[in-house]
Write a structure and sequence with these properties.
The protein is α/β, with parallel strands linked by helices and about 675 residues long. It folds into 3 domains: about 300 residues, polyphosphate kinase like, CATH 3.30.1840; about 160 residues, Endonuclease, Chain A, CATH 3.30.870; about 180 residues, Endonuclease, Chain A, CATH 3.30.870.10. Helices cover about 35% and strands about 20% of the residues. The strands form 5 sheets. The chain has a 9-stranded mixed sheet, sandwiched between helices. The protein is globular and about 80 Å long.
Length: about 675
């Protein structure tokens, strides 16, 4: 088999994941208003794809055009065309699903006015909203205004005047007043896009009814153009690049279908658009705004789930409790409070001398960052590594880094050519006592409500000692000189021993299978891309190892290919919560090794990040994670099987196992024991 036939294209695989998100919006079992949320997720994901991946595909296309007939390693020249075709099909499906949802909303007396005229019964109310609110934000921009530069991902109209031939731009101020107007009359709720209110009443406002409105938006390249440097203020450099991000070149000019061809050509010249970036869409853009759909009805939403509260003994320090027994938190089923308590108590506990942590995506109103600042003001030595290159969170991270620094926190910024993606913390107390926090997800109380993640709090010296080594290394802000520079033997750290250890663990399973023992590997990831690890999984399959993989997003591995991956089954789960935790289980010779961690198996995680995976040395907790994995792998409702082409296949069953609900029930049962 040729090398190119061993792997699924990463971009096509990602689009398959987004298609699964779209399917969730069409599932009968999903509450009606939640369906709109999945449409918003799909739209937001697609915007990010155009900001991050389409620039790469467009660059490949340009390279191939400049080098006809030349084969370039690791580049599939057909990807751009395949991706565009796939996206077009998904957009058509999006429209059909949304149309069905609008019909279902009407049955609930919720009238979403979409692709139709504003009803007579709400004309006066929408007119009032236009003249009292919307009009104050409208800007009329002549087409020959050379200073006009469309803001990234903002909505605009290009307006033509049939009488005078004039052409001008008009902004849609959803960034100021939101996208929707809502009102209620006689028990009927109405939701109107402000786009349509502008179309209806702007002509009246300027006493000109000969106007034509054509909606458009421009999506720009989101990649930061940073030369990694050791010297100077990296925060200032990144802040400058973030501000320039909205000035990046256009990767998509999205316009409504009836925009005249001549006007398209004029705009292409005006905005310096590549032909490949000009994409016909629907009458409405930025449907990620459905996140803020203004109708909230409990009966049409997911039922509220009360989180399980662990560690409710407030008469004793959390650190004294952890000295006796490890604590494992599974968010969002279990409350994030113990993690907040870990930092808050460290800030005021007189026995705490030093605090170390890494922060990758900081919450906008972060109690953790506030606790770290408070700890510094209370005289503790606080050392925080802030990753400033966390895509789309750079500005917020810079804000908190500066605030903490002002309060006396010692801040270390990004490492040149590396991102620190590890989710770790270490608290040092008097008499040499140490407590560690290691997680699969960000130390962010907001995302912890919707991301499934795992957080281990432990005083096990085998882990705290090695974490101490890592925190001593990070301020050097450099790559290790060699993978053996630091002697990690329990923690798996990318750039040191992570890849080698995973390959070794798979090899041990292979040897066990070849010796006639039962060997099983169970892995849960967000993304699976790195080829040497995929090849080792193929080798394990051929040796008779049974492999169960849960991969939410990109999966380049081809499952169920005869002679290559017969023993590999891959499932993808998309449900109420975003699956985010990484699990690695290796079972052979009547023993199990269980790891959790921050690292996916992507090139960026393996080669361009500092990641931390950690063993569960507490056998009870290790067994619990194995049971949680098995519950998820048995999901036959919100899980789909991935075929050898990376496409989602429904699971034929009558069982209706919904793993996210079953996990909540399982963890509730554990609390009662």
């Amino acid at each position: 088999m040729k090398k190119k036939d061993l792997y699924i294209n990463r971009d096509i695989s990602w689009l398959s994941f987004n298609d699964r998100v779209l399917d969730q919006a069409g599932r009968q079992e999903v509450p009606l208003l939640e369906k709109l949320q999945f449409l918003a997720i799909f739209s937001s994901n697609l915007d990010e794809f155009y900001r991050v991946r389409m620039p790469v595909l467009m660059a490949w296309k340009k390279i191939m055009k400049q080098n006809p007939g030349q084969l370039i390693p690791n580049i599939d020249i057909g990807t751009y065309k395949k991706a565009s075709k796939t996206i077009n099909k998904q957009q058509e499906k999006f429209g059909l699903i949304l149309a069905d949802i609008i019909q279902e909303l009407a049955k609930e007396n919720i009238f979403f006015i979409y692709n139709r005229a504003i009803p007579t019964e709400i004309k006066d109310l929408t007119a009032q909203y236009f003249f009292t609110t919307i009009a104050s934000y409208l800007q009329i921009i002549p087409i020959d205004d050379t200073s006009f530069f469309p803001i990234n991902n903002q909505l605009y109209f290009v307006v033509t005047d049939d009488n005078t031939g004039a052409v001008f731009f008009l902004n849609v101020p959803s960034n100021h007043i939101g996208r929707f107007f809502t009102c209620e009359i006689n028990g009927n709720k109405y939701v109107v896009l402000i786009d349509d209110i502008i179309r209806a009443f702007f002509p009246e406002a300027i006493r000109n009814t000969s106007l034509n409105f054509y909606s458009f938006k421009i999506t720009r390249d989101a990649e930061l153009n940073l030369q990694d440097e050791f010297e100077g203020d990296i925060a200032q450099k990144i802040e400058t690049e973030v501000n320039k991000r909205d000035l990046g070149y256009a990767t998509r000019f999205l316009f409504q279908p009836n925009l005249p061809k001549q006007l398209i050509e004029t705009l292409a010249t005006l905005f310096d658009l590549r032909k490949s970036s000009i994409v016909e869409g629907g009458n409405y853009h930025n449907l990620k705004d459905l996140f803020s759909f203004p109708i909230k009805i409990a009966e049409l939403s997911y039922p509220k789930q009360l989180q399980i509260n662990k560690n409710q003994n407030f008469k004793e320090s959390i650190f004294d409790q952890i000295d006796r027994e490890d604590l494992l938190i599974s968010t969002p089923y279990e409350s994030f409070d113990p993690i907040l308590r870990f930092f808050n108590e460290a800030a005021i506990d007189p026995t705490v001398d030093e605090i170390y942590t890494t922060l990758y995506r900081i919450a906008g109103d972060s109690h953790i960052a506030q606790a770290l600042a408070t700890a510094a003001k209370n005289g503790k030595r606080v050392n925080v590594f802030v990753e400033l290159k966390a895509r789309f969170d750079e500005a917020n991270n810079i804000h908190w880094a500066r605030l903490m620094k002002e309060q006396g926190v010692k801040i270390t910024y990004s490492i040149p050519n590396l991102k620190v993606h590890a989710k770790i913390a270490l608290v040092k107390r008097k008499q040499g006592r140490e407590s560690a926090l290691l997680g699969t997800g960000n130390l962010n109380e907001k995302t912890a409500k919707v991301y499934t993640d795992y957080f281990l709090i432990t005083s096990n010296k085998l882990l705290t000692n090695e974490l101490d080594m890592l925190f001593e290394f990070l301020p050097a802000r450099r790559k290790p000189h060699s993978p053996n520079e630091l002697p990690f033997s329990h923690l798996l750290i990318a750039q040191f021993n992570l890849k080698h250890t995973f390959l070794s663990l798979i090899d041990q399973a292979i040897q066990a299978a070849k010796a006639g023992d039962t060997a099983t590997i169970k892995i849960k990831l967000n993304n699976l891309e790195e080829e040497s690890l995929i090849n080792k999984l193929y080798e394990a399959s051929r040796a008779g190892v049974k492999l169960q993989l849960l991969v939410r997003g990109i999966c380049r591995l081809k499952p169920q290919v005869p002679g290559l991956s017969d023993n590999i089954v891959v499932k993808r789960i998309v449900g109420r919560y975003l699956e985010h935790g990484r699990i690695f289980i290796f079972q052979y010779q009547a023993q199990s090794s269980v790891y959790l961690g921050s690292s996916d198996w992507m090139n960026r995680n393996i080669y361009r990040r500092i990641e931390t995976c950690f063993p569960l040395l507490n056998l009870t907790l290790a067994h619990q994670i194995q049971e949680l994995f098995d519950i998820q792998f048995a999901d036959d409702t919100e899980a789909t099987l991935l075929d050898e082409h990376g496409q989602n296949q429904a699971i034929e069953t009558q069982q209706k196992n919904v793993s996210q609900q079953q996990i909540l029930n399982y963890l509730k049962g554990k609390m009662k024991q």
